[in-house]
Specification:
Distance between the termini: 122 Å
Number of helices: 15
Largest sheet: 2 strands, parallel
CATH class of one domain: Mainly Alpha
CATH topology of one domain: DNA polymerase, domain 1
Strand content: under 5%
Strand order of the largest sheet: 1-2
Radius of gyration: 40 Å
Shape: flat
Length: 296
């Protein structure tokens, strides 16, 4: 008994300390499980400050939603693809009607004609029509008086066939613009690409003009032909510098390096056709690449 008594015997100060500690523990338990930290205060959501703040949040949300919408840039409605039509909100039936209309080589020249062909709703037409971009002569026709419109309808075709030449290598921008679907931008782009090639040697080189629709290119080739083939300045593949070789419109940086490596291996190409021995050489472009090179 004396052993246990020595462990449980405390003086007055120690007992007070123990009681104070127990009191603190109980007090903390009461605070934790009470509603001291809770608040029954009701916030009035109709206060002007809160309403103004909520309106500001809603406004920012609306701006963000608008910013996430796909941007629409000016475009010619005659060249709407399936993907583009879907982005604009057109149905598959409406897109199919437009594609069928274009397949017979007919063109839409106003927003009213667009609606007549596609049968789109007024609301959709009003939303996308401001982005329609027609060739200049179409805009001039639409903005002219009724008498002038009649003149356009009766004379545009006849005046369009007045061309300075039918040689695609000599045709001017004005000549190309007589083709339905070719405006100022494409006519200048064709001439720039023709200059880069030093002239068209193959008619199907026209399909390489960036952005030019195949249907429109077919129309150009139905009128303009290669009458006089261009005289192309050739460079010797065995002596050409890297800068001279890469000027070839069909040779990029990687192919130019491969040609130089092959030239170093064989010392000298005896015949231009040896280029076909280069690994991964674009055989489908050989006839075009060969236009600008010689081997002796």
């Amino acid at each position: 008994m004396n052993i246990f008594k020595s462990h449980f015997w405390y003086n007055k100060s120690q007992r007070n300390g123990i009681f104070f500690l127990i009191f603190l523990i109980l007090l903390l338990q009461v605070i934790i499980f009470s509603d001291v930290f809770s608040s029954d205060k009701i916030i009035d959501t109709n206060k002007l400050e809160i309403v103004a703040f909520q309106n500001q949040i809603d406004s920012l949300k609306a701006v963000e939603i608008e910013n996430r919408k796909p941007k629409i840039y000016p475009f010619n409605p005659n060249y709407i693809s399936d993907y583009k039509g879907e982005q604009l909100g057109m149905s598959l039936a409406e897109i199919d009607r437009l594609l069928a209309f274009r397949k017979i080589n007919k063109f839409i020249n106003s927003k009213n004609e667009f609606q007549q062909v596609t049968k789109v709703s007024d609301s959709l037409l009003n939303r996308i029509a401001p982005y329609f971009k027609f060739p200049d002569w179409v805009v001039n026709q639409n903005n002219s008086s009724p008498s002038k419109q009649s003149f356009y309808k009766n004379n545009v075709v006849s005046s369009a066939i007045i061309r300075s030449t039918l040689d695609i290598n000599k045709a001017t921008a004005a000549d190309f613009k007589t083709i339905n679907g070719i405006g100022l931008a494409f006519s200048e782009r064709i001439i720039q690409y023709r200059s880069k090639l030093q002239g068209f040697t193959f008619e199907n080189q026209l399909y390489e003009v960036w952005g030019l629709d195949k249907i429109v290119a077919d129309k150009v080739l139905s009128i303009f032909k290669i009458i006089d083939k261009p005289i192309i300045k050739k460079v010797n593949v065995n002596t050409a510098t890297f800068k001279e070789l890469i000027k070839n419109p069909y040779i990029d940086y990687e192919l130019c390096k491969k040609i130089f490596n092959y030239r170093n291996e064989v010392a000298e190409l005896q015949d231009l056709s040896e280029l076909k021995n280069i690994k991964d050489f674009p055989l489908d472009k050989y006839d075009r690449i060969a236009l600008y090179l010689l081997a002796n």
